[in-house]
Amino acid sequence: MSPTAARITAVDTYDIRFPTSRELDGSDAMNPDPDYSAAYVVLRTDAEDGIEGHGFTFTIGRGNDVQVAAIDALRHHVVGRGVDELCADPGTLNRDLIGDSQLRWLGPEKGVMHMAIGAVVNAVWDLAAKRARKPLWQFLADATPEWLVSQLDFRYIADALTPDEALALLNSGREGAVEREGVLRERGFPGYTTSPGWLGYSDEKLSRLARQAVAEGFTQIKLKVGADLADDIRRCRTARSVIGPGIRMAIDANQRWNVGEAVEWTRALAEFDPYWVEEPTSPDDVLGHAAIRKAVAPVKVATGEHVQNRIVFKQLLQAGSIDILQLDAARVGGVNENLAILLLAAKFGVPVCPHAGGVGLCELVQHLSMFDYVALAGTTEDRVIEYVDHLHGHFLDPVVIRNGHYAAPTTPGFSAAMRPESIAEFTYPGGTFWAADLARQGLTDQKGAAA
């Protein structure tokens, strides 16, 4: 590398939070008051093109300060790296971040540190795709199978997926890729919506939003369940009466139940023909999911948004524990690890229906599913991307939904960049919204104390 070659000069972090709990947006049986948040990172360089890499991981409020601190702890691995080398081989940084032994001790490859790695790695992929002048899904689909395999970490998964098997899957996936890319650009990728189904919503709001979802072309909705069975029966009956028998309805317990409860509760809701039951128990309980799946069939079992890494996904697949794999763009170690998970799913023949919603997860994960369709799995059958209809306006390249489908992004990068004015307003605690909000709370507290 020449002395004048561009380098990463800064890793800037932001604690960005939105007050979604005040309208009960995002509420479910385990998370009644989420404030959707992003631990947000910007990679800055001294390159003349001025291109930056943007990434983030999703949290739901107070944990965001811990998450930002974890990203900050990785800064020394990134600053000073050559931009050309980094974008040509993001896997090198991924291995260095995972291999920091003192930070690895906090995992390994799980929890806050692993999510921080994902945020940084995703920012690198955003930078690389922007410099290639391609949206990330196309950047991945155009890459050679050999290069993609070089980006994967096969440690701990080689008993289920070898490099040769991964290469064969990717070579096979290239057959017909040009035609599928054309279909993707024309039709988009099918989505489903959780927007009607938050647990805190009234029956009137549930009905109105479910009816609206069908009118907008969605062929699947999802309802949160798990707090009260009688309430769930009423809400499922309400939703089914609105959408009719031809629309799929999934239910999501957000890890609420023990194994026995999950079986009993799902059977109690079976009359409403749920397509899948999501996160019925702890995401770490591989054998519990297998037992639930056997007991509640033909209702499918789905999980993945809280699965910590490729190793747990491997075991879920090996044990026959899930019908639907729900990867998350930011829970694991970023694009590199999600590529490994997509390949594991392809090897085992399990459809991937990603978790999205939150802050920016829809923007990110659409790229992974579109790559999977164009250059790996080669189908959208029984595959849908979750969609939630809030907070997209804070992104420079927000998702576009047409007739219940995600339109293929055309802007270079990972669709991760937030609007500067949104960052200025919702950075916690000094952004304009939070500074004013905290000041009002302070006045209220003072009045209460005086009274």
From TrEMBL:
Its cofactor is Mg(2+). One of its GO terms (biological process) is carbohydrate catabolic process. SMART domains: MR_MLE (SM00922). GO terms for molecular function: L-fuconate dehydratase activity; magnesium ion binding. Keywords: Lyase, Magnesium, Metal-binding. CDD domains: rTSbeta_L-fuconate_dehydratase. Gene3D superfamilies: Enolase-like C-terminal domain, Enolase-like, N-terminal domain. The keyword Membrane does not apply. Residues 203-299 form the Mandelate racemase/muconate lactonizing enzyme C-terminal domain. Its EC number is 4.2.1.68. It catalyses: L-fuconate = 2-dehydro-3-deoxy-L-fuconate + H2O. SUPFAM superfamilies: Enolase C-terminal domain-like, Enolase N-terminal domain-like. This is L-fuconate dehydratase.
